[in-house]
Structure formats: structure tokens, C-alpha cells
Specification:
The chain is mainly alpha-helical and 197 residues long. Helices cover 71% and strands 6% of the residues. The chain has helices at residues 6-15, 20-27, 31-43, 62-76, 81-108, 112-143, 149-162, 167-170, 177-192; strands at residues 47-52, 55-60.
Amino acid sequence: MTAADFPVLHAVRLGGFADSERVAERAMLPGPAVEVTLRELESRGYVEFMDFTGSGGWILTEGGRMHDARLQADEMAGPGIRGLVESAAAEFEQVNPRLVRVVTEWQLAGVDSDRSKARERVISELGDLYLEFDELMEQLVGAVPRYGRYPRQFASAVDRARTGEDEWIAGIGIPSCHAVWAELHQDFISGLGRERR
């Protein structure tokens, strides 16, 4: 098991329960290569595949969780990395209440005309949030490319929501705006050894 396997192992951790396709999306790696790595991780006891009535997904074992934490600590120990993560996380916390408010507005919106008006406001603000999101992540992505998937997936979710696919605002089981945001939050928390507030 090497640090090269960290993107896949960490993708499973952040996904909680995810099929191979979703793990590959999070790891930003080709599906076939990710499948091979997952099988290797499984043979070492770091992940296991769970099947619930035909819907299967990968989860971390306790050993996998501990090993992922060690590998993330190694990543954080790189020259200047902790400072960049701390800076990006601090800016993220400044923007986070807006995202929470927007998603809450969407989830509480009514139906028909009320929801239509809420949709316009929500998507407009998500677009604005993306611009801030991309800017606050720029330096970190330059140093640790794996973080690049967060602004990219957030932008993709906003684009899909604009076309009328409303599930991409706060849907579960897909890289929706809310899901991508929450995973980055967890990534920061685990990397910095903090507790979720």
C-alpha cells in the first residue's frame, strides 16, 4: 500500500458508501484503474464491498480509516501544505453560512410558482458562490491537485441545475452542489484534525 493509493482510499472515506463509479469521480482517476486499486485495498482489509438489495458500494474498514488518516497526515506534512489548507479552510468557513442558507431556502421552498422563484434566486447565488469558491481554492489546488475536483464538480452541478435538473442543487448520491461542498468541509476537518461544528 503506497501513497499513490491515497486518492482512492480517501475517496471511499469521503463517500461513506459509494460504488466504483462514484469513487473514480472523487479520485479523478480512470474507472478501470480505480477498480483494480479497490480490489487491492480490499485484499489488504482497508475497504469492503457491501451489497444492499442490489445496490452495492464500498466502505472503509476501521483499518482503512486509520490508514487513510495516516496518509492524509503525510500529505499535510508536505512543505507549506498545512498553511495552504488552513488558509483555504478559514476562507471556506466565511462563505459556508451562505451556502447553508441557500440550500436551506431551496429545501424549504414550496411548490409551483413559489419554488420557481426560489429556484431562480438559489441558482443565481450558487453561481456567485462558485466564483468565490474557485478563487479561495486556487492556491491550494495549485499545490495539491486532488482538491481541484471540488470547484470543478461544484461548477458542473450548478450548470446542470441551470438546465432544470434540480436534483443537482442538493441531491443525495450524486455530486450535487450541497454534496460537493459537504465533502470538502469533511476533507478540511479530517486534514486539520478538527471536529465538525
